[in-house]
Design goal:
single chain; alpha/beta; Cobalt-precorrin-4 Transmethylase, domain 1; 3 domains; 17% strand; globular
Length: 271
Amino acid sequence: MKEFDFYIVPTPIGNLGDITLRAIEVLKLVDIIACEDMRVTQKLLNHFDIKTKCVSYHKFNEKERINSFIEILKSGKKMALVSDAGTPLFCDPGSVLVDELRKNGFLITSLPGANAVVTFLSQVPRENENFNFVGFLPKTKSQIVDIFKRTKFSDLVFYDSPNRIMNTLEIIEEIYPKAKVAVGRELTKVFEEVKIGNVHDVISHFKEKVIKGEIVAMIYQQGNNTCELDDIDEKIEILKSKNYKAKEISQIISLLYGINKNEVYKRVLER
């Protein structure tokens, strides 16, 4: 196996059996593991009899840790980065660190493994492969509504918490009463549940339940009608008349309407 300086290692999102053999091997191989919550990671390490030293690395100390990590790697030691659950850098710290390590010429690799979005989408039927993932939704209603409207031309996937999901579903019902949604909770755990249906029915399903565990949810594409497509085509023609290039137009329309920019690019070339 090729050796790297720094390994990004996914950990199980619930079921400990989902860790890979390679992940266990790497966590035993490296000299130090950087983790969000040392208590959480230590439980995983103890389960698989991994004795590697852990150091804390989270959103509140990620910048101040960079120099010390660089010095550790320069000394010839190897490190791994894990999050509490799932794949690091997906709504978890690590991006700042990885960017700096690449600038300093260290060899970095990422292992395949558990990810809540992939686990969720692999059991939720969709018409095509296009979707927008926005991580955790913002806190204010106006910001949430803005995201929903900007991304209505593709399936929208997001994370949510048990105490917020009902409010989020009610906002969806308010702006898209006929929306189809999918909600997954406790993925890979004993009480795993994925509910798919009209937003009103999904609200009714969860209303009398005590919702636990992290949530992954999706709003199915809302923007399907001809008028909306005609509106996009009109904007494309306006931008073309102003001598914008196809790539530039696709980026602008994608930002305004939340449509996959590759789909817009094809539409620009067809006109």
